[in-house]
User: What shape does this take?
Amino acid sequence: FSIKLPDKEVEVRVAVARGEELVEQSQPYEAVREYQKALDVNRNSSLANFRIGEAFFAMNNYQASANAFREALNGDLTPKWTEVWSHIYLGKIYDLTGSRERALREYQKALDTNDNTQGAQNEAQRWLNEPYKAVKIG
Assistant: This one.
């Protein structure tokens, strides 16, 4: 038994999956190019925009990251968890850039979704209680 997806949706999923593989191989720039291919097929893909946001966040490009997470929130919200996690990442970006009030609003919006995918509610509550700080490696 198989589910027949529209061809465009298959193209989006394939491009996103390729991008995810590139992220795992520590190739974020190449990953963004793959996610961009998904957006060329479906401009409203919340998943592709979310993954772009994650990639830019990992590169400390917070402006581009925030823009991508906002696009994810304005997209098709598929899968549903892209909404809660976009709010969490936006909150983190605002914390990192010194806008605590804006960060608190984003964490609250995340809580308001009641979506607990991958522990999102605990994550949002944690950063509501204490500002997010970038983890220094090394």
